[in-house]
Amino acid sequence: MKIIARIFILVTGVLLLAHYLPSGFWLVADKPQRVPYVFYSAVENRFLFFRYGNGEVQRTDAAGKNYDRDEFEQLLPLDNYLQLLRDGRMPKTINNVPIPIDKLRVERISLRIKPELLDNPAVALYPLLEAESGRVRLEMPGDFFRLNHTIEFIDAKSNRINADKSTKFQSAFAATRFNFPAKIIAGNPSTMKPYDEGYFITDSQGAIFHLRQVQEEPELKRITDVVASGEKARWAALKPRFIQVQEQENREVRAMIIEEDGQTHLVIGQDYRLVTLPLKNYDPAKMQVGVRGDLLNRLVTVSSDHYVEAMVLNRNYDFVDRYTETLPERKDCAAGKIAGVIFPFTLDFEDDASGFIGFHFSPGRPIALTVNAVLLLPALAWVLIRKHGFIKRFPELIAVALTGVFGLAMLFLVPKTE
Amino acid sequence: MSLLQNSATKNISQMVLPQEKSRAGSAPPARRKPSLFQATLFKEWIKLRLYWALLFAGSLGFAAYLSLRLRSVHQFHDAVSIWSAWIFKGYLFFSSFKFFPLGAGVVLGALQFLPETLNKRVRLVLHLPLGEERVISHHLLVGLLLLTLIFLPAIAFFAVTGWLYFPMEFQQNLALTLTPWLLAGYASYLLTATLLLETAWRHRIFYLLLGGGALRLFYLGDFYDTYQRVLLVFAVWVAALFILPLFSSYRFRKGIIS
Question: What ipTM was predicted for this assembly?
Answer without folding.
Answer: 0.90
